[in-house]
Amino acid sequence: MVDGIYGIKLGTTQVFKDNGEAVYVTAVKTEPCVVVQVKNKEKEGYDAIKVGFGSIKKKNVNKPKMGEFKNINSEPKRYFREIRIKEEDKELKPGDNIGLGIFNIGDNIKVTGKSKGKGFSGVIKRHNFHRGRMSHGSHAHRIPGAVGMCATPAKILKGKKMPGRMGNQKKTIKGSEIVDIIEDQSLILVKGSVPGARGNVVYLEKENQK
User: For residue 8, what are the β-bridge partners?
Assistant: First the structure.
């Protein structure tokens, strides 16, 4: 069976252990992912499955997407994503469901999502630079300082810490733990924080499986 599942981040809360300790958790709604297509090395060049998840009204689905789900006798889904599979997972076929059963309480997982976009930011906010002197006559309060180079190589190298767009990047948090699984609500409670804002798509995957 595959090692991961897609879900939607709902928000954060806290739960209490038997000893009264409060644990900060993030709730992720993970409706069963429906296998829409199985890809293989012979045709697509890699082994993966294309899954659909998330509810959507039929009037908001175009005909090509509706046709994909009609072929597998499934209700249309809002999101399409791919999951890489191993050799032993090739028995999966279109129409199969991947649900919460792949996880157990206490499993160590890694969570992948897209971080919050924070727009264009300076070097103090983006890279934790120190500010310049605030004394009278100083013209370098929040600027990054000199970035030029000598005649060789006479350019700014890639990766230089400079102002730019902050956030809105793919992030993975490792070492997370499943605190609880609420099957009747399709919820997974993950210890700690999860990348992205409420409503973002996240991928939960077992650690040390590849």
Answer: 29, 201
Q: Is 185 strand, coil or helix? A: helix
- Gap between the Cα atoms of 12 and 25, Å rounded: 6
pTM tops 0.85, yes or no: no
Name 72's Cβ contacts closer than 8 Å, sequence gap at least 6.
34, 35, 36, 94, 95
Let me know the angle formed at the C-alpha of 83 by 66 and 168, rounded to the nearest 5 degrees: 90
The H or E element spanning position 48 is strand 48-55
pLDDT over 90, % of the chain = 43
Query: In this predicted model, what pLDDT tens digit does every residue of 80-107 receive, in sequence order?
Result: 888 888 776 777 888 888 888 888 898 8
Nearest to 113 by CA among 1, 2, 4: 4
The domains found in the chain, sorted by start residue, are 4-117+170-206 (2.40.30.10), 118-167 (no CATH)
Q: How does DSSP assign 99-117, residue by residue?
A: -GGG--TT-EEEEEEEPPE
Buried b (16+ CB within 10 A) or exposed e, 102-114: bbeeeeebbbbbb
DSSP string for 126-177: HH-PPP---STT---SS--------TTT-SPPTT---SEEEE-SEEEEEEEE
Q: Residue 9 and residue 30: Cα distance in Å, rounded?
A: 9
